[in-house]
Amino acid sequence: PVSGRAINMSEAAVTEKIVQKGDSIRELKSNKADVSAIKAAVADLLALKAEFKTVTGKDYVAPGQGSSKKKKKGGDGGAPKPKEGGEVSKKQANKDARKKAKAEAQAKAAAEREEKRKAELAAQGTAATVESDASLFGDAPLITSHEMTDKVWVDIKNLSPEMADVERYVRGRMHVSRKQGKGCFFLLRQGLYTVQGVLFQGKNVSKQMVAYLAEIPPESVVDIRAVIRVAPELIKAATQSSVELHVLEVHVISKAAPVPFQLDDAARPDGDESGAGVGQDTRLNYRWVDTRTPANQAIFNITSGVGGLFREFLHKRGFVEIHTPKINMGAAEGGAEIFHVDYFNQKACLAQSPQLYKQMVAACGGFEKVYEVGPVFRAENSNTHRHLCEFTGLDMEMTFKEHYYEVLQVFSDLFIFIFDQLNRRYRDELETIRAQHPFEDLKFLQPSLRLSFAEGVAMLNEAGFSQDPNGDLSTENEKALGKLVKDKYDTDFFMMDKYPLAARPFYTMPCPENPEASNSYDFFIRGEEIMSGAQRIHDVALIVERAKAHGIPEAGIQSYIDAFKHGAEPHGGGGVGLERVVMLFLGLKNIRKASMFPRDPTRLTP
């Protein structure tokens, strides 16, 4: 830790909070509290200890604990055990001598490289006593859009050896800094990318300027004017490993207070127990810090990519993007899992789906092919790894000429396009995510595998799983079927149609061959459902009949029914959960990792 950085609390205040948190953890353990609660409290304690170190420059030591380190086992630091009489064997002595000589040679070579580097950096002069121009470093004035200049900026991801000896401005976050002798090394971060910067005393560079740079708090926003140089050797700690910035000016744009957790801890690979991790609640409580980790930057770039590719594909196929209301009179799906709102003394609810509106526009409104990207609200009290109370829906609806398989073909082509393009356009992001959250590449077939519900039930029953042929799949059976399909067909992605009519919404067209079945379908990734859809009923009398069978009052959907009285085309479609697609494509274990600010039954902020 570097002295002189901005802090929120004094040493005494932080110490008091650490003691209180420790007492709280002991109380949780004595009361046999839930393990997740204890882990969360421990994560908070570690964050406080990190803040203590930031404030004081030293590790926290509990009262009564000595600071002296225990001697290593054996007390001799691992030295070779002498023979009787105190002599070391000749063979061991020769081995030790070779080891020592090798270490000394490596140290000498490293020292020579470092001295050469320092000499080059200081070649402009020996200004140990020279004062830097005050305009070359310091806290910048508040940017209020007062003026625009002719400064030439470059993004860190675009830095390369081809830009050697070019002077540019770079803005980024101070990731880490290290003062060494009369100089300072640091990493500047911008999104997924990092670059090393260096500054040594020399012409126009005083020790005050070096000290200022070294003391900039981590995560502060910094402007650097620098000359881009080819690095003398690859810098493994930086993504831009072949170049470095030789600093000419440094100004802090926004100084960061101590962060609630270290980004290096938040970026540890899954299963890495070499250091303290960061609990999920702590991450979500400070999401604006958590999203700065490379993996999270990549995850939300992928999320943006899925939405963009969804739009790109459908736009090229002649679909029109629409926007439907999210405050409605009744629930599109029926049932009680809706959020009620007061709408000027009228009862209303938040939309579970754009379902009825996209049908009215596509089948009745003359547009024929439409899609929407928008929020979906589900009042499901489900605290699971895959449910959210608010998520982003990717909905599509289209008319067809003869058979709903025309709709299935479009969906199949859509998903294959998204999967292919993610693999091609987002390679850096995928590898960044894989480094923290290891996953296997998604396997899919072209054309996509299609099973009937009856075939899926048969596969489950043959494998020893119990599945009602007239009921929907449970979560457990979905996962089991996904594994069976992967083993048999070597694909993580497939569709299944002809679901039981009783398990589908009122607007679903019954199957002409089997009155117990329906012209409906689900799509799956890695054994979890990502989309439901169906051929919709376009006959008024049948719509009314099916609504009654589901106990839906006709008055609540009267405008929907009226739309079909003036001529409606055969049509079908489906709705996809964006966050669930991202979670399953990347093999993430929890949907909250794919939601920037997740809403579940227990979380309403931030």
UniProtKB/TrEMBL annotation:
<feature type="compositionally biased region" description="Basic and acidic residues">
    <location>
        <begin position="81"/>
        <end position="120"/>
    </location>
</feature>
<dbReference type="Pfam" id="PF00458">
    <property type="entry name" value="WHEP-TRS"/>
</dbReference>
<dbReference type="GO" id="GO:0017101">
    <property type="term" value="C:aminoacyl-tRNA synthetase multienzyme complex"/>
</dbReference>
<keyword id="KW-0547">Nucleotide-binding</keyword>
<keyword id="KW-0067">ATP-binding</keyword>
<dbReference type="InterPro" id="IPR009068">
    <property type="entry name" value="uS15_NS1_RNA-bd_sf"/>
</dbReference>
<dbReference type="InterPro" id="IPR006195">
    <property type="entry name" value="aa-tRNA-synth_II"/>
</dbReference>
<dbReference type="InterPro" id="IPR004364">
    <property type="entry name" value="Aa-tRNA-synt_II"/>
</dbReference>
<dbReference type="GO" id="GO:0005524">
    <property type="term" value="F:ATP binding"/>
</dbReference>
<keyword id="KW-0436">Ligase</keyword>
<dbReference type="InterPro" id="IPR020719">
    <property type="entry name" value="RNA3'_term_phos_cycl-like_CS"/>
</dbReference>
<keyword id="KW-0963">Cytoplasm</keyword>
<comment type="similarity">
    <text>Belongs to the class-II aminoacyl-tRNA synthetase family. Type 2 subfamily.</text>
</comment>
<dbReference type="GO" id="GO:0005829">
    <property type="term" value="C:cytosol"/>
</dbReference>
<keyword id="KW-0648">Protein biosynthesis</keyword>
<feature type="domain" description="Aminoacyl-transfer RNA synthetases class-II family profile">
    <location>
        <begin position="310"/>
        <end position="606"/>
    </location>
</feature>
<feature type="domain" description="WHEP-TRS">
    <location>
        <begin position="10"/>
        <end position="66"/>
    </location>
</feature>
<protein>
    <recommendedName>
        <fullName>aspartate--tRNA ligase</fullName>
        <ecNumber>6.1.1.12</ecNumber>
    </recommendedName>
</protein>
<feature type="region of interest" description="Disordered">
    <location>
        <begin position="58"/>
        <end position="125"/>
    </location>
</feature>
<dbReference type="InterPro" id="IPR012340">
    <property type="entry name" value="NA-bd_OB-fold"/>
</dbReference>
<dbReference type="InterPro" id="IPR004523">
    <property type="entry name" value="Asp-tRNA_synthase_2"/>
</dbReference>
<dbReference type="GO" id="GO:0006422">
    <property type="term" value="P:aspartyl-tRNA aminoacylation"/>
</dbReference>
<dbReference type="InterPro" id="IPR002312">
    <property type="entry name" value="Asp/Asn-tRNA-synth_IIb"/>
</dbReference>
<dbReference type="GO" id="GO:0003723">
    <property type="term" value="F:RNA binding"/>
</dbReference>
<dbReference type="Pfam" id="PF00152">
    <property type="entry name" value="tRNA-synt_2"/>
</dbReference>
<dbReference type="GO" id="GO:0004815">
    <property type="term" value="F:aspartate-tRNA ligase activity"/>
</dbReference>
<dbReference type="InterPro" id="IPR000738">
    <property type="entry name" value="WHEP-TRS_dom"/>
</dbReference>
<keyword id="KW-0030">Aminoacyl-tRNA synthetase</keyword>
<dbReference type="InterPro" id="IPR045864">
    <property type="entry name" value="aa-tRNA-synth_II/BPL/LPL"/>
</dbReference>
